[in-house]
């Protein structure tokens, strides 16, 4: 069964909904709305990773995140989208249930903190954070083979540092170090990734690679997102990270 992960950006500069939920009260209201729509996890991000975004330090990220966590009474698990180990430690102490490491466990300090917990860990493949359109795989790269190679490497690294492989959820990182065509190839090859084992999450919602099939601006890409979600569900992908949960819950996860 595919699980829906609702996106809750509390940033002022996210690519499709920046600023809408930055205030703690607005974020708490949106959390409740995502739950009511059918989300099974809500992923909260306080630092935008879109191209051109301004990177945040850990203290600034936590200053955004803490009031939101204080305002929410969780009824479903909260995932924290971060690359800062100190934010992870604080968020877990505040009740977060899942960590979404957009830097792919590249920081030894992150691995140390996570080894001291038992939470699931979403580990995303990327070449740069924030995403940089100038830093992408070469044209000779086979996206599926490269992600499978990365999966083997990161699983071994995590295990060596005390993070059990069963805790990992792999995110191929559409748009992070990939051209639009390469991101699309990762959608087309989802079955191969899933059959390699482990749990997989796709974060394709409203992303720029969808320009291959639609001219709509980010906030109007839900229909294109949904069509890909159907394909990914058919491939057996276990988690879909999406903005419009209601659209998906009505069809995909009933």
Describe this structure in words.
With 254 residues, this protein is an alpha/beta fold. The protein has a single domain, classed as Dihydropteroate synthase-like (TIM Barrel), CATH 3.20.20.20. The chain has helices at residues 24-37, 58-71, 85-93, 108-115, 143-160, 180-188, 190-195, 222-234, 245-249, and strands spanning 3-9, 41-45, 78-82, 98-101, 121-124, 168-171, 199-202, 239-242. Strands 1-2-3-4-5-6-7-8 form an eight-stranded parallel beta barrel. Helix 1 packs across helix 2 (58-71) and helix 2 (58-71) runs parallel beside helix 3 (85-93). 43% of the residues are buried.
| Count of DSSP strands | 8
Strand content: 5-15%
Q: What percent of the residues sit in helical stretches (DSSP H or I)? A: 25-40%
Helix-strand string: EHEHEHEHEHEHHEHEH
Q: Assign the CATH superfamily.
A: Dihydropteroate synthase-like
* Strands ordered across the widest β-sheet: 1-2-3-4-5-6-7-8
The CATH class designation is Alpha Beta
Q: Which stretches of 5+ consecutive residues score pLDDT under 50?
A: none
Compact summary:
The protein is of the alpha/beta class and 254 residues long. The chain has helices at 24-37, 58-71, 85-93, 108-115, 143-160, 180-188, 190-195, 222-234, 245-249, and strands spanning 3-9, 41-45, 78-82, 98-101, 121-124, 168-171, 199-202, 239-242.
């Amino acid at each position: 069964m595919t699980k829906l992960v609702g996106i809750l950006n509390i940033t002022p500069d996210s690519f499709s909904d920046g600023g809408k939920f930055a205030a703690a009260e607005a974020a708490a209201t949106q959390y409740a709305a995502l739950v009511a729509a059918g989300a099974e996890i809500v992923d909260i991000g306080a630092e935008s990773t879109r191209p051109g975004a301004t990177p945040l330090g850990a203290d600034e990220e936590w200053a955004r995140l803490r009031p939101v966590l204080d305002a929410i009474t969780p009824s479903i698990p909260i995932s924290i989208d971060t690359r800062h180990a100190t934010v992870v430690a604080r968020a877990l102490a505040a009740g977060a249930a899942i960590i979404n490491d957009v830097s792919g466990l590249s920081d030894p300090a992150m691995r140390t903190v996570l080894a001291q917990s038992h939470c699931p860990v979403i580990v995303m493949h990327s070449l740069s954070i924030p995403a940089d359109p100038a830093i992408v795989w070469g044209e000779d790269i086979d996206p599926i083979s490269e992600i499978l190679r990365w999966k083997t490497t990161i699983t071994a690294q995590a295990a060596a540092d005390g993070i059990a492989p069963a805790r990992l959820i792999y995110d191929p990182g559409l748009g992070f170090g990939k051209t639009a065509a390469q991101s699309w190839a990762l959608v087309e090859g989802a079955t191969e990734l899933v059959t390699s084992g482990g749990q997989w999450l796709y974060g394709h919602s409203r992303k720029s690679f969808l320009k291959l099939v639609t001219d709509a601006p980010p906030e109007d890409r839900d229909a294109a997102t949904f069509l890909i979600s159907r394909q990914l569900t058919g491939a057996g992908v276990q988690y879909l990270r999406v903005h419009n949960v209601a659209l998906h819950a009505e069809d995909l996860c009933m």
